[in-house]
Specification:
The chain is an alpha/beta fold and about 140 residues long. The protein has one domain: Rossmann fold. It is built from three helices and eight strands, in the order βαβαββββαββ. It is globular and about 40 Å long.
Amino acid sequence: MRVDFYQLSGTPAEAVVPLIARATRKEGERLLAVSGDGEELTRIDEALWTRVPEAFLAHGMAGDAHAARQPILLSGDCEAENGARYIALADGVWRDDAMKFDRAFLLFSEAGLDGARNCWRMLGQHEDVERRFWKQEGGKWREGP
C-alpha cells in the first residue's frame, strides 16, 4: 500500500481532490473521496465539475442509486460502493479502514500537521506501507523529504 501525504498550504481540499481524481482516472482506477464534513463534500462535488474543465470527472454521492457505477464517489466513510482501490481523505483525518485500499491520499492543512505527523510515524511501523510526502512550492506539487 502507498500513502501520499499532501500538505495543503492555503489551498483547500476541494482544489486538490479534482487533480487527484484526474490522475486516478488516467491510471484507470476509481477513487473514493472521504470527508466527515458534509459542506466540504458539497464543495468537492462542485469542484469536480468545474476545477479541471478539460477533464470530465463524472462522480456521485455514496448511497445514491448509481453509486456502484461512479468512477469517483464522495462519501462520509470508507465504504467504496464503487469498488475504488484509491481513497482520498479530504478532511485530513486518517481512518484505519483506508488500509484496505491500494493507495491513500491524506490531505491536511497546517491545523492538521500534528495529526499527519503522528499518522506518518504510525504508518512507518508497517513494512507493507510506502509513504510519500508532497508540498506546494511555487504553485506546483513537489515531493518532499
